[in-house]
Design a protein that fits this description.
With 253 residues, the protein is mainly alpha-helical. Helices cover 76% and strands 2% of the residues.
Length: 253
């Protein structure tokens, strides 16, 4: 028999707010391809599994009636969403890198393939890279890293302790994540940046030597063929470095 059913339910709901807020923005779990009912029950199941681990931290905040419970709900949801956005920004960075790679390798196909995360029309190559990168993250159990960080977050940001300093810290965390993600994705796309620059400069010089020949239309198949061959050589290392960089970006905060 549960000695305090009301306190238990309130504690579970607070844990659900932080876990559910994280999964609401977490890549893969927040995909529109996953029905909302499944997302709800997965978040509830994870909350039930984690509640015994953080019971001593959460329950004292709800065992006594408090008028700030609504505010605690809001702060817990905001903290969880921040953790989910860190992973979401990192996964979205691969979409940014894929768009750059497709442009510099001459693969300018119209957006037709739906994106795996949001379902928006996307370049086929970019959609393939995002799907492969997300699959690599799941294969390496990135969700375990996220849930461990959520458990540790109760030491850094306890329940009910949320103010201006915590808000500023979360904003700094998100901006640092965007900065780190940009540099990582720029490094991953750098071979294609160099390839596109060298190829276009070479074609421009050839065009100056033979202006009567429509060199732009002639060079397009070779531009695309070289870019696809470079992708064939680099895609394994690219995805591996993408997956290896996730813990350093996520746990770096």
């Amino acid at each position: 028999m549960i000695p305090d059913p009301q306190g238990t339910v309130l504690a579970l709901f607070l844990v659900f707010c932080r876990i559910g807020g994280c999964m609401m923005a977490l890549p893969g779990f927040s995909s529109i391809r996953l029905p909302a009912t499944i997302r709800l029950f997965v978040a509830l199941a994870v909350s039930l599994a984690l509640l015994p681990l953080i019971w001593d931290v959460v329950y004292p905040r709800v065992s006594v009636a408090t008028p700030t419970y609504i505010g605690i709900i809001f702060s817990e949801t905001l903290i969880g969403t921040t953790y989910g956005l860190i992973a979401r920004f990192f996964a979205s960075g691969l979409q940014f890198a894929g768009s750059i790679m497709a442009m510099f390798m001459g693969f300018n196909a119209p957006p037709s393939a739906p994106d795996i995360v949001e379902g928006n029309p996307e370049n086929p190559m970019t959609s393939m890279l995002v799907f492969a990168g997300l699959m690599m993250l799941f294969a390496l159990n990135f969700h375990e890293i996220v849930f461990r960080a959520l458990i540790d977050s109760y030491k850094v940001m306890p329940v009910g302790v949320f103010g201006r300093d915590e808000t500023q810290r979360m904003l700094i965390t998100l901006t640092d994540t965007i900065d780190m993600t940009f540099h990582i994705m720029l490094r991953l796309a750098s071979p294609f940046l160099l390839y596109g620059l060298m190829f276009n400069v070479s074609i421009g010089m050839i065009n100056k030597l033979a202006q009567q020949v429509p060199i732009f239309f002639i060079s397009m198949p070779y531009h695309l063929m070289g870019g696809l061959f470079l992708l064939y050589l680099c895609i394994a290392a690219l995805l591996r470095q993408f997956a290896d960089a996730f813990p350093s970006v996520f746990l770096g905060h």
